[in-house]
């Protein structure tokens, strides 16, 4: 069995763009949270002993623009990176993506709500103070789907630092909102009480969903991650290969023999007997076993193989997956090939 580092190197890993996208997503959430908190602070007329009231308001405005810029970086990098196959249309229309569609869709909804808040704010003068204030109630809208999107889509969701940061965001908004709902005129009390009830209900539902979903192992598959990504970016799942006219799935018959360097395996294809496969253990200077494919004794290709519970290798442009069964004396297996061999 090859060392884990070698196995990891055999599969394609996400590019730096993917990490940039996730990093930008996390910072966007933090800045969006600060924007919401300061927005509440503006309406509560917060001011410090040495910081005048207008500082809260202008910080709120500048942070909202910064959040939009960071969001643009987050979206552009996630579309440019090929890892999750996110298309521009997936970033514009919610729930279309093949990668974690519902949870990505929540991010798209959050982004569109944020854009709507920003655009209506540009027309603040024309809308008049009263009209704009009514519309600006919608400024709360982007934040909850953004939190749910981060939890539902995020690869790092179970990392303690991200659990801490998301919790801090939630606590900050809840505290500011609590102050906002407690303060107010008597005649708005019923509306404020209703808002408090809805907020508590949404908070309870979200926490229990997070505890039973994203924070548990196995969420990546449940969230709708394509099989090709779950299988270590090998390109496509065996089921997808089978459906391609050029690919095939054949039974293998073989045996295992002991050599000086370890076990060697040789197979013959039961459907196409001219095709033989051998897997030799790594020679002292090599790190990975080598898979060779031959037709009528003539070698077609030879490449390092990643050996785990299954064996992966690439022969020319064709990806091979070998599943082993049986005993060393009489091995059987299945060869799944993404395309033709020789
Ligand atoms: C206000 C809007 C948004 C916020 C605050 C936000 C925030 C986040 C956060 C916190 C993460 C988790 C990062 C991690 O786990 O490391 C994330 C992941 C992600 N977001 Fe967003 N996001 C928003 C909108 C969008 C939109 C519109 C798209 C559409 C392209 C998008 C695509 C992604 C992708 C592809 C991931 C990575 C998923 C993964 O790690 O597997 N986000 N986002």
Protein described:
The chain is α+β, with helices and mostly antiparallel strands and 342 residues long. The protein has helices at 4-10, 16-43, 53-80, 88-92, 101-122, 124-136, 143-153, 160-182, 189-212, 219-222, 227-230, 238-243; strands at residues 248-259, 262-269, 275-280, 290-295, 298-304, 306-307, 310-315, 318-326, 331-337. The chain has a 9-stranded antiparallel β-sheet. Strand 8 and strand 9 (331-337) form a beta hairpin. Helix 2 (16-43) runs antiparallel to helix 3 (53-80) and helix 5 crosses helix 6. It is elongated. Mean pLDDT is 85; it is low at 1-13 and 232-245. It binds protoporphyrin IX containing FE. Protoporphyrin IX containing FE binds at residues 21-22, 25-26, 28-29, 32, 71, 74-75, 78-79, 84, 86, 91, 104, 107-108, 110-111, 114, 142, 146, 149-150, 153-157, 162.
């Amino acid at each position: 069995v090859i060392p884990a580092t070698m196995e990891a190197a055999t599969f394609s890993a996400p590019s730096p763009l993917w990490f940039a996208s996730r990093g930008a997503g996390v910072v966007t959430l933090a800045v969006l949270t600060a924007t919401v908190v300061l927005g509440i602070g503006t309406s509560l007329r917060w001011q410090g002993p040495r910081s005048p009231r207008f500082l809260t308001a202008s910080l709120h405005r500048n942070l909202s623009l910064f959040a939009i810029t960071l969001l643009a970086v987050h979206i552009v990098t996630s579309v440019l990176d090929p890892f999750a196959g996110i298309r521009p249309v997936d970033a514009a229309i919610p729930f279309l993506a093949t990668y974690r569609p519902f949870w990505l869709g929540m991010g798209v909804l959050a982004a569109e709500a944020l854009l709507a808040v920003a655009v209506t704010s540009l027309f603040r003068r024309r809308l008049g103070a009263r009209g704009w204030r009514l519309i600006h109630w919608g400024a709360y809208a982007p934040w909850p789907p953004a939190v749910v999107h981060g939890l539902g889509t995020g690869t790092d969701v179970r990392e303690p630092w991200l659990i801490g940061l998301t919790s801090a965001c939630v606590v900050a908004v809840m505290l500011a909102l609590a102050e906002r709902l407690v303060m107010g005129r008597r005649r708005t009390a019923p509306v404020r009480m209703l808002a408090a009830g809805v907020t508590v209900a949404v908070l309870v539902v979200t926490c229990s969903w997070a505890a039973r979903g994203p924070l548990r192992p196995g969420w990546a598959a449940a969230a709708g991650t394509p099989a090709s990504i779950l299988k270590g970016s090998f390109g496509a799942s065996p089921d997808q290969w089978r459906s391609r006219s050029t690919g095939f799935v054949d039974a293998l018959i073989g045996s295992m023999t002991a050599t000086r360097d370890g076990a060697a395996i040789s197979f013959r294809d039961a459907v196409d007997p001219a095709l033989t496969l051998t897997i030799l253990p790594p020679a002292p200077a090599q790190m990975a076993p080598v898979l060779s494919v031959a037709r009528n004794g003539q070698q077609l290709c030879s490449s390092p193989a990643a050996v785990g519970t299954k064996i992966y290798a690439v022969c020319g442009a064709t990806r091979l997956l070998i599943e082993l069964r049986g005993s060393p004396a009489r091995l059987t297996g299945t060869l799944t090939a993404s395309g033709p061999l020789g």
